[in-house]
Design brief:
The structure is a homodimer. Chain A is α+β, with helices and mostly antiparallel strands. Among the domains of chain A are: 1-70; 151-231, 2-Layer Sandwich (Herpes Virus-1); 440-521, 2-Layer Sandwich (Signal recognition particle alu RNA binding heterodimer, srp9/1), CATH 3.30.720; 565-685, Anticodon-binding domain (Rossmann fold, 3-Layer(aba) Sandwich), CATH 3.40.50. Chain A has 23 helices and 28 strands. In chain A, strand 24 (567-571), helix 20 and strand 25 (596-598) form a beta-alpha-beta unit. The radius of gyration of chain A is 31 Å and the shape is globular. The interface between A and B is large, with 85 and 84 residues. Chains A, B: Homodimer. Chains A, B: GO terms for molecular function: ATP binding; glycine-tRNA ligase activity. Chains A, B: This is glycine--tRNA ligase.
Chain lengths: 686, 686
């Protein structure tokens, strides 16, 4: 392995790149301070340039990354598929892109991650868990904005009809051009200007680039269609008539929002409270790539914490305030600096993180991620810059994990203000609000509008309902105006192009004074949203290891809390006398609820250790000839260190329970129990 | 409440109905013994009559069922909705039939049921759990038979387009006619003959009935369309081209079958093994009814136990052989008898249950169901009669729970022989087989067919692949015939209407002898398939109670293993001195992973007990003035008995852990701890 460069030398190489970002970041900041219009071409150009410089810096950082931080992805994926952690779905039928099945190992890891998620968030924070339908009628996703805006641009091969995601295709082709040896400096500069703009391009801008560079299908070299938007939701039809259009949900969050009233009532009307949901969501990606990172069906775990927007303090913030977390703030990103390790309490005090509740969740996410096996050095929280944040959000931090695909967003944590509830209120007509007591009772003007259906019915028959509804829904000003006009005589109103003559007897309006004790408000929502598949992928990369003494021996250092099996039971050989002990120990472990594997196959003990290391089994119980003598005992071997201790059979359940839940560490046990040294240690047997 | 009739009197009433069934059952049996053709009109008529008599018997049994066995469903549903166990999805937008959301209580119960399912089946039996895609390409469901056969007949209101399930509509209208007072005896007999036939009717038969009885839409009285088949799967399109047709899976089983090879390999090639999957499935019911019993999206838990068809013994069968289980055999059903309590071992010995493995699963299902709270008196295993069983199945028993909707199938347990793997083998071309060692090595004839693409290519250019493939796939006989003809000279073959002249150099065939040690076979599958929503509904009905002293106090007697909260912490009053104890006990319980609720609201202690009984909280910890004195102690109250004991705070975690996992019972605790009698017991405070 080549000696990696020292951090100091790398920093020297990076410095000019950092400076270039900072200069440009300052320029953008200045323009913002001068309240420049965000559609101003100069401003747009400045943002593009900033992105370009940030990308150049990131590329350099990746290039000089120490070798031991990079992983052999092919080798890892080989292991993941060979031992069936996961694999492509339906591959006996040729497979479907973007769909994966978890095998026994992946499935057990997923179940353990979700169990810990439930314990860490739902149980410990007394959240309200719900389990809502995946099938979702159109109106709900119209309200959320997904029907109109959850789309990517795609281009089609005009002959074969094959589809490509337009931004990915343009980016790939521009980058290929950029790498051409004979590229002239003008062209180079032009492409470098274009690249960072792709993210914000609409169809016509993309079409211009495709035409200008005469881009073709990368597969057939045929011409491409113009870019068209493609909605990423899977559509279906609910019920037999074909009239109820529905989608598979693209996120679990909407199920919580539409249940807000029931949940608030369940919580006896009190705020704040959090609801949570674990479940599958679906996105019909145009051309899925990057393995488990971008898939069409995936498990999410989402929390919606509802809070009074005037008070976002959190009573338990102090319990996470001392955490030291890598934060990559918008201002770091603007100035070309790296992420910085910051004490969470300081980040909230200095207002770098908008409020205590958001800060509390960042801390809890950090605790969760590191507990399930994410390497804290490869975990950072990146703040959204104002230009990438949704207009309604007031702050947003993504938990990103460093993988061989780059930094990947695994958890989003956004303060979405009152956007979602407001939208559903608008579309459903239901009042999705909470109440807070007023400091003192208040007198308010209340409008009472009354439409008399019995009177209206005499004149208008079947139109009665339409007219009554129209009148009752008049705004305060319109109702007052109509009332005043009716005082003068009959008045014609127009509903959907039809005229109706309204009389004074049909309609009254009064404005009265009432005393109120409470006021209504729409709660804010803070939303931590976890992509379980991505977290698992990061866990695998962060824990994949190759034994220095043998390139073929690969394994995972996953924490015992998460591993599919907590231990393996191995008789030293096929000796008949060992068999009852295998049975006895297995029964003890089942009784204690400890998942385990039995390996009585004929391989050498070393080969069998190696097979169990591959699937991350953290401890091995070996039954040998000493086991047969009183006090009946076994050896317990640890996966990462190869170290073994000797313990009595009747202690084994308690010890493994402690190790699995983290109440005792291997290091502690090694001080309490005698180390076991094999009589005939060969290299293979370790 | 009216005094229920004694069992003896009821049995007297039922006797003639039982006899009528038996007489007819014997007639059917006799016809079968005489190998009558099953399409013979007389035989069909005999089966119909048998069904009719069975239904009359069931109706009588329901009619005379003791009152305490019936439940007030409206009252229970009110509680389930009011405390948000579940409710209709998207109801702020008017709701969608057949879609339900589980609220915090339903969701926690579901999570607990699934956790116990994992422990009971997957952990204890070392099953291989998988987690497969719900989106499924068409070919997979073509192979399984769902594309062609998973359909119901529906009729449409010709004016409004409203759809009805044809069999339900016909049945409802015939039953209404039957209840008319002025019905003449001929008509009555005719309808009674028709009713039991509906299940087996195809479209034209249904159309005849609809015409004959001039049936109309029950909503508008408009005419109805002819019955058409409606496939119950939700269709969607995968990827952007619209060319990959897909469905939402209608069951989880197929995901296991298509992964059979990987799973067998994971199990190192050994049989038997079981794979399991928990996940959602989807059925686009035409007109869902019966609340949670018939829904469009539901969670299943399925096991596929793969076994050598020549050996279906089970090594652990003895562990369940002594269970006494209510079995409702096909022969009981034919002879008008009730279900009978049978020792499981006897049922397998007498071949009533086809084999040990099937019997073992019936036993394990029984243990699971009763552990999660299903009443064993309301649980029976009903054997499919030969006319309702799929043609490939060799035995099938449904675990049915008695509810206010009648006996509802909650778990199916079928021996599906090798049907599923064979189908996927046929459609995918992959060999889905296992190997067993031969008793002795065997010599076999092996055909070696060789098509020489390089020679073929010289003559036929672009058709080479087609021809090569055709030749290689020739059957043994065709290959030998072609070989023989080529010995005589060139030979023309026909592929898709095109002729090709084949020469001796293009193709060889030989039949050679090989010695083999193993033989391949397609494993049989035994499939226990659980409908989680239905099981939960049965659990709720079986555990719903009304306090005799107060009709308004309703509660659930669910076992602590399953309840959302294991306990509630209640300070006797709002006294400031109690607050630190609430915090301290809550922290102890979180540490021990015990889910709990805190109720510091201002209601009386009695009202608060009642609120926690409603959501099935089995134990209440009350902090009172004695708590403040050393040794710090609290009262622990049990939900069903109202009994209270006094325990020390530092014992509380261990006690609740024991109660929740079932390692200690309330009865045992009552003998170990002093009973606590309140000083000022009022009725409300109990």
């Amino acid at each position: 392995m080549a000696t990696p460069m020292s951090d100091d030398n790398v920093e020297k190489i990076l410095e000019p790149f950092r400076t270039a970002v900072k200069v440009q970041g300052d320029r953008v900041k200045e323009m913002k301070d001068n309240n420049v219009n965000k559609d101003d071409p100069d401003f747009k150009q400045a943002i593009s340039e900033l992105k370009l410089r940030k990308k150049a810096l990131e590329d350099q950082i990746t290039k000089w990354m120490p070798k031991e931080e990079s992983i052999d992805r092919l080798k890892m994926e080989d292991l993941l598929k060979r031992r069936f952690f996961y694999d492509q779905s339906f591959s006996i039928y040729g497979g479907v892109n973007g769909l994966y099945d978890y095998g026994p190992m992946g499935c057990a890891i997923k179940a353990n991650v979700l169990a810990e998620w439930r314990r860490h968030f739902i149980l410990e924070e007394q959240m309200l868990e719900v389990d809502c339908s995946m099938l979702t009628p159109e109106i709900v996703l119209k309200a959320s904005g997904h029907v109109d805006r959850f789309a990517d641009f795609m281009v089609k091969d005009v002959k074969t009809g094959e589809c490509f995601r337009a931004d990915h295709l343009i980016e790939a082709q521009l980058e290929r051009l950029l790498k051409a040896k004979d590229i002239n400096p003008e062209k180079k500069a032009e492409i470098e200007r274009l690249l960072p703009q792709i993210d914000n391009m609409k169809g016509p801008d993309m079409q211009k680039v495709i035409e200008q560079y005469k881009m073709k299908s990368p597969v057939t070299n045929n011409d491409l269609s113009e870019p068209v938007t493609f909605n990423l939701m899977f559509a279906t039809s609910i019920g037999p008539t074909g009239q109820v259009k529905g989608f598979l949900r693209p996120e679990t969050a909407q199920g919580i929002f539409v249940n807000f009233k029931r949940l608030l009532e369940f919580n006896q009307g009190r705020l704040p409270f959090a609801a949570a949901q674990i479940g599958n969501s679906f996105r019909n990606e145009i051309s899925p790539r990057s393995g488990l990172i971008r898939v069409r069906e995936f498990t999410m775990a989402e929390i919606e914490h509802f809070v009074d927007p005037t008070d976002k303090s959190h009573p338990k913030f102090e319990t996470v305030a001392d955490l030291q977390i890598q934060l990559y703030s918008a201002s770091n990103q603007m100035s070309g600096e790296s992420a910085q390790v910051v004490r969470l309490g300081d980040a909230v005090n200095s207002k770098l993180i908008n409020n205590e509740t958001l800060g509390y969740f960042i801390g809890r996410i950090y605790q969760f991620m590191t507990k399930v096996g994410v390497d804290k050095r490869k975990l950072r929280f990146r703040q959204h810059m104002s230009n990438e944040m949704a207009h309604y959000a007031c702050d947003c931090w993504d938990a990103e994990c460093k993988t061989s695909y780059g930094w990947v967003e695994c958890v989003g944590c956004a303060d979405r203000s009152c956007y979602d509830l407001t939208q559903h209120m608008k579309f459903s007509g239901e009042r999705l609000v909470a109440e807070r007591p007023l400091p003192a009772p208040k007198k308010v003007q209340v409008n009472e509008v009354q439409a008399y259906a019995n009177v209206i019915g005499k004149s208008f028959g079947k139109d009665t309902a339409t007219i009554t509804k129209h009148l009752q829904q008049l705004s305060h000003d319109d109702a007052r105006a109509l009332h005043d006009k009716l005082e003068q005589g009959d008045e014609k109103i127009n509903i959907d192009g039809k005229e109706f003559a309204i009389t004074r007897k049909m309609f009254t309006f009064r404005s009265i004074e009432k005393t109120v004790q409470v006021e209504e408000f729409v709660p804010s929502v803070i939303e931590p949203s976890f992509g379980i598949g991505r977290i698992m992928y990061a866990m695998w990369e962060h824990n994949f290891r190759i034994r220095p003494e043998d390139e073929q021996r690969t394994y995972f250092t996953l924490p015992p809390l998460i591993t599919p099996y907590k231990c393996v039971i191995l008789p030293l050989s096929g000796n008949e006398e060992f068999k009852p002990y295998v049975k006895q120990i297995s029964a003890i472990l089942i009784q204690a609820g400890i998942s385990h594997k039995i390996d009585t196959s004929s391989g050498t003990i070393g080969r069998r250790y190696s097979r169990s290391d591959e699937i991350a089994v953290p401890f091995a119980i070996t039954i040998d000839f000493d086991t047969l003598k009183q006090p009946y005992s076994v050896t317990l071997r640890e996966r990462d260190t190869f170290k073994q201790i000797r313990v009595k059979i009747d202690e084994i359940a308690t010890i493994l329970q402690g190790l699995s839940t983290g109440t005792v560490t291997w290091g502690e046990l090694c001080t309490q129990y005698p180390e076991f040294v094999e009589q005939q240690t060969t290299k293979e047997q370790q």
